[in-house]
Amino acid sequence: MNRAIRYSSKKVILIALAIGLLPIMLGTLLVYLKTSSDLSRTSDNAAHEASRQITVMLNEAEAAANELINIAGVPCSEVAKELREAVATYRFLRATNLAMDNQVYCSSLYGTDVNLTVNPQNYLRGRLRLVDQASPGPKTSVLILRVQHGTKSVLVGIDGRHIQDALHLINKHSNLSLQVGNTWMTQYGITHTPPYKDFPTAPKTLLSNEYGFTVYAAYPAGTLVKHTFDTYSVLLGLLLALGIFTGLLTYWMLGRVLAPSMELQRALSADEFIPFLQPVISSTSGKWVGCEVLIRWNHPHEGIIAPNSFIPLAERSNLIIAMTRRLMHKTAQQLAPYASRLEQPFHVGFNVSAKHFENFDLVDDCILFLRAFKPGAIIMVLEMTERELIKPTPTALQLIERLHDLGVKIALDDFGTGHSSLSYLQRFKVDFIKIDQSFISMIGADALSVHILDSILDLALKLDLQVLAEGIETEEQRDYLGACGVDFMQGYFYAKPMPIDDFLSTLLDKTSLSKKTAWVDNPGSTATCPASAQP
Ligand SMILES: Nc1nc2c(ncn2[C@@H]2O[C@@H]3COP(=O)(O)O[C@H]4[C@@H](O)[C@H](n5cnc6c(=O)[nH]c(N)nc65)O[C@@H]4COP(=O)(O)O[C@H]3[C@H]2O)c(=O)[nH]1
């Protein structure tokens, strides 16, 4: 049985693990999705904000360029001051330049000392370009806006540090970059490969319809996990605790009820329950006139397991009906071929439980059992135990009626051990009583104990019930009960419960012996019965 439970425990552990992991996984998934959507939203917001701020800078630069376009073509010496004033006036500007026929001839930084040819194709939509500018001053980048009217053009440069600052300040955790043509600028400066590729989390792309630049926002790899743990650590801790709790609860509950009953179900499907028979001896003839069928679990690892360790569970888990049905079927299969060599009629007793009295399935089971034998060859006896409360419901009473109609006898097992012996005798039409072995063991003990046994025998006699004494272990018990008129005996004194094959071979040996010597299991005794219990 231990091995069986260990085997079931593996399943129970797996189920408990699965159920314990379920809230953890579902919860983590939800938290993960929430974090993902949070990051996606902030990434989107950051991209929009960066685009807005760069647009503001470009709008300002465009306003400056539109003012300066009017003086393009005018000699540099006359307009150099205006170029410098524009740089001072507009917040983001770093330099302004005038060009004619794409040749820059005047610069706010260098005056006339400039020799630069502009190629409009290097400019996105002919207007925008992002470049590194090494001098003068600190190395920085410049976003150049070009405005052209005919042959005149103005180039205004936005200081890249303003853009870098904006990208940096909008969201410190996300990585924002600006793309103009094939050049990208991050908050760290200009790169010539797409920097967003290194930031695969929550990537967002926003194209400026007005200027054609693109803003990328994304988070570095691992941000999702880090953010999840940083933001939802308490919730994740609670989920973990919930998972452990549900897992342990499941383990506890399954371990208590489900696992062993699953093991019983498995054993039933694997046909591991087998009948053992214990002979019932006639007190008068001393012959084996019947048997009680006692179930055994032939466990693949544990060997033969006694019924007390699994019958209560089988009753609780409703498997008892199927088990009894299977037991009847197996007994019939093995006993039927030898039926003609058994005492006629031969009593075959089966134990039934309270569950059997809840519907009429038992009638069909008994019909099937009896069908395996010639009519009259077998007397089927159903032993209802008094230890388990069987309610005298209309169904139970009708069931007994139907069983009686089939010729099935009802025995009251463990008589005297419960609280309802007398009411059972009254309500159920009982044919036999089986005196419990606890009373039999009183024989030879003190006078008071024997008196109790005598009273039970006296009652049975007065009610005209057939009596079977079980648990006979000594000659003295046998002799005493025989003298008291007990009809049938059962106990280790005669034989222990045994597999059907052993039962049949012992019985058939005895039968063939009896043909020569007239064998009996209880030769005449000299014991006397007290007057009250005498037949
Ligand atoms: N000490 C001692 N014991 C003796 C002696 N003679 C017989 N016994 C044992 O006493 C029990 C008699 O069966 P029970 O009262 O119906 O008590 C049975 C019965 O209530 C239940 N049981 C057995 N088979 C089935 C079954 O197929 N269905 C149901 N519902 N219960 C069953 O399990 C109980 C125990 O069965 P077992 O372990 O086979 O134990 C059997 C039997 O082996 C004896 O001389 N000395």
From TrEMBL:
SMART domains: EAL
Residues spanning the membrane: 12-33, 232-254
Record's keyword terms, sorted: c-di-GMP, Cell membrane, Hydrolase, Membrane, Transmembrane, Transmembrane helix
Topology within the bilayer: Multi-pass membrane protein
Protein name (record): cyclic-guanylate-specific phosphodiesterase
Reactions catalysed: 3',3'-c-di-GMP + H2O = 5'-phosphoguanylyl(3'->5')guanosine + H(+)
Primary localisation category: membrane
Assigned EC number: 3.1.4.52
Superkingdom, natural source: Bacteria
Main EC class the enzyme belongs to: hydrolase
Subcellular location: Cell membrane
Residues annotated as domain EAL: 257-511
